[in-house]
Structure to design on (436 residues):
């Protein structure tokens, strides 16, 4: 078994380029970007990614991969996935925030993560969603009333998931193992 | 949107307690063991409320929260004695998805916005303890006090203040297994665009269904899962039979 070391990056953390950068969730877009800017991580993450580090964003972390957000106008995202973040539509007779378990429907074959091709729900809790410029970045979609929002995006060495795998029971654990396997692959 | 069934775990800070009408607390076991049990049963979400936090003048115990977080692979919300943004940060750092504000949100509504501005609206649940009349003041301090602001007015202000969910608690029915207050669930769900978690009095499978029909997005319950054979999974199966959308495990 290979052993992985995990580092929580603080302001003055000195480290080599990691195999995987994980951007966790919970928070407002502007606050999340401010936290990355303060730690001088915006350019660093982009550089690491261009040199081969994989980047995974969860919930707000997925939205930080985007270009701009309606939640905090005037603040640039990481722009790793060309996209804009908008509030979920209030025209669907669904209550916002979207809170709870929901299916993810694959929009890409073959999937880089096989667990996404199995039945079972993931846990969502969000008011905003990411709309990618390029349809080819869509990995899964999830229904919200009649509306289909993008619940995960994928591009070569970038993954963004709107749901919380770490809070999604066994299915979530399987996805996390597959992400770790993927990150261990040559990069 | 799929309906969530949420077991409520009440703690006095260390152990799991169970009361009736927010009184007569008795100990029913270790909070950690209870969380472990529910996690193994694929629950949708858990609600952890420290009912003694305010009287101890402190919020929930750090160790307890740490234990909770380490055994749970589903989302959980924490409430009891959260008075400041720092208190909320502490809960999020220990893995909570959402915080529940009660008395503190009534006395200091700005707290809702302060937390939502940093962590987003979806991270803030406001619990509303109310008496039968929506036109009377919101009950605070576990039902021992009453605020100036009327329940109705307070509920209508919550979305604008930045809350993400409303936890509707019926003090009179808490722990009684005597059925839920469906007319009030219905009335309040129609007053707000926020998801409503109905709580208090669920005593049989059909209570959950009726609460959902009345407009609840989720149903939280304690006693029925502690003291009867009914499990959250069984509730989901019952709802699914009635064409209510629930989590697919």
């Amino acid at each position: 078994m290979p052993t992985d070391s995990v580092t929580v990056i603080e302001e003055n953390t000195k480290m080599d380029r990691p195999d995987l950068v994980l951007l966790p969730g919970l928070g407002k877009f502007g606050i999340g970007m401010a936290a990355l800017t303060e730690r001088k991580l915006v350019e660093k993450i982009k550089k690491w990614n261009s040199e081969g580090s994989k980047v995974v964003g969860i919930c707000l972390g997925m939205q930080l991969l985007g270009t701009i957000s309606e939640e905090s106008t005037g603040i640039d995202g990481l722009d790793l996935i060309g996209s804009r973040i908008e509030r979920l539509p209030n025209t669907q007779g669904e209550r916002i925030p979207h809170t709870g378990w929901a299916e993810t429907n694959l929009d890409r074959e073959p999937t880089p993560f096989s667990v996404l091709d199995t039945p079972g729900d993931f846990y969502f809790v969000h008011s905003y969603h990411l709309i990618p410029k390029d349809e080819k970045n869509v990995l899964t979609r999830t229904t919200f009333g009649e509306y289909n929002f993008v619940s995960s995006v994928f591009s070569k060495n970038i993954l963004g998931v709107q749901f919380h795998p770490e809070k999604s029971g066994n299915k979530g654990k399987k996805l996390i193992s597959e992400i770790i396997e993927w990150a261990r692959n040559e990069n | 949107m799929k309906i969530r069934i949420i077991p409520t775990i009440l703690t006095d800070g260390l152990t799991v307690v169970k009361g009736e009408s927010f009184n007569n607390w008795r100990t029913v076991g270790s909070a950690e063991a209870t969380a472990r049990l529910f996690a193994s049963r694929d629950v949708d979400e858990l609600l952890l409320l420290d009912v003694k936090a305010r009287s101890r003048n402190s919020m929930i115990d750090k160790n307890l929260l740490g234990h909770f977080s380490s055994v749970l692979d589903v989302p959980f919300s924490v409430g009891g004695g959260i008075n400041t943004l720092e208190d909320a940060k502490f809960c999020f750092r220990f893995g909570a998805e959402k915080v529940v504000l009660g008395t503190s949100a009534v006395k200091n509504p700005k707290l809702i916005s302060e937390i939502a501005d940093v962590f987003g609206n979806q991270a803030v649940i406001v619990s509303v303890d109310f008496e039968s009349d929506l036109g009377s003041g919101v009950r605070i301090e576990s039902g021992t006090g009453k605020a100036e602001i009327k329940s109705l007015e307070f509920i209508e202000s919550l979305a604008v203040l930045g809350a993400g969910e409303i936890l509707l608690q019926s003090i009179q029915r808490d722990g009684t297994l005597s059925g839920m207050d469906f007319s009030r669930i219905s009335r309040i769900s129609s007053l707000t665009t926020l998801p409503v978690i109905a709580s208090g009095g669920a005593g049989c499978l059909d209570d959950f269904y009726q609460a959902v029909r009345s407009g609840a997005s989720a149903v939280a319950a304690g006693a029925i899962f502690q003291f009867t054979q009914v499990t959250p999974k069984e509730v989901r199966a019952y709802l699914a039979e009635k064409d209510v959308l629930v989590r697919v495990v």
User: Anything to note?
Assistant: The radius of gyration of chain B is 16 Å. The first helix of chain B runs from residue 31 to 40. The CA atoms of residues 59 and 82 of chain B lie 6 Å apart. The mean pLDDT of chain B is 89.
